[in-house]
Amino acid sequence: MNIILLGPPGAGKGTQARKLVDERNMVQLSTGDMLRAARTSGTEMGKMVAAVMDRGDLVTDEIVIGLIREQLVAAQSGGDIIGNGFIFDGFPRTLAQADALGALLDELGAGLDCVIEMQVDDDALVDRITARATCKDCGEVYNDNTKPIPADGKCSNCGSSQIERRADDNEESLRTRLMAYYKQTSPLVGYYYAKGDLKSVDGLASMDEVAGSIAKALG
Ligand code: AMP
User: Fold this and answer.
1) Is 166 one of the annotated active-site residues of the chain?
2) Cα–Cα dist 92/85, whole Å
């Protein structure tokens, strides 16, 4: 089963994707994580996208489609991975990316089973993002108000001390990211609705309730 998690920054896509990986053994493909890894390892592409990401703008379609293509082709040659299915997290974010994903899946003889739209209101997003910290090693998400970083600074999930705030998790960059979402990504809601693939869930409910709604949507 191949699915897309669609929603604005802070909607909880990464958190729910990780749950699906644990529970269903699916493969998470997060373009945001891939781009951050490219920055950390200092590749030419990583250097090129750093300022764009910090500002909160979208990097070019060409770059992210190339990243997804690489992963899908690698998974195809790995054979069995494709059987468990992919969770596209933060991709596609534009209509051109959505078309490219459809074509790539066609090429691989695979399809898209469901697009989950995670609905969250903007005030909640600002609160979530400005209070957010993430474990660099396992992706566990903390929130200053609802789930503070443990007093010893170590991740409660994996014990790592690498809990960090993202450079783009500030109010100014968030405004740009939200604008990019409404201008470039939200048209995908209509796009996938028209294709008959869209299911919407309330992203403001508790993490387990959202997971339950997603499980129901996936059938
Ligand atoms: P995310 O971790 O999904 O919030 O992504 C962080 C940043 O990476 C975004 O604000 C964009 O700058 C960039 N990015 C991630 N995915 C995409 C994408 N599909 N298209 C364009 N830019 C992306």
Assistant:
1) yes
2) 16
CA nearest neighbour of 13 among 164, 115, 101: 115
Of 24, 132, 147, 154, the catalytic one is 132
Q: What is the DSSP letter of 185?
A: I
pLDDT per residue rounded down to tens, the chain (219 residues): 999 999 999 999 999 999 999 999 899 999 999 999 999 999 999 999 999 999 999 999 999 999 999 999 888 776 545 558 999 999 999 999 999 999 999 998 889 999 999 999 988 898 889 999 999 998 899 999 999 999 999 999 999 999 999 889 998 999 999 999 999 999 999 999 999 999 999 999 999 999 999 999 998
d(CA 161, CA 146): 20
pTM for the model stands at 0.92
Distance, CA 12 to ligand 1 centroid (Å)? 14
Q: Are 122 and 11 in contact (CB under 8 A)?
A: no
CA 177 to chain centre: 13
Query: Helices then strands (H, E): number in the chain?
Result: 10, 8
d(CA 120, CA 143): 16
CA distance 84 to 202: 26
CA distance 179 to 43: 28
Residues having CB within 6 Å of any atom of ligand 1: 9, 31-32, 35, 52-53, 56-59, 64, 90-91, 93, 97, 168, 177
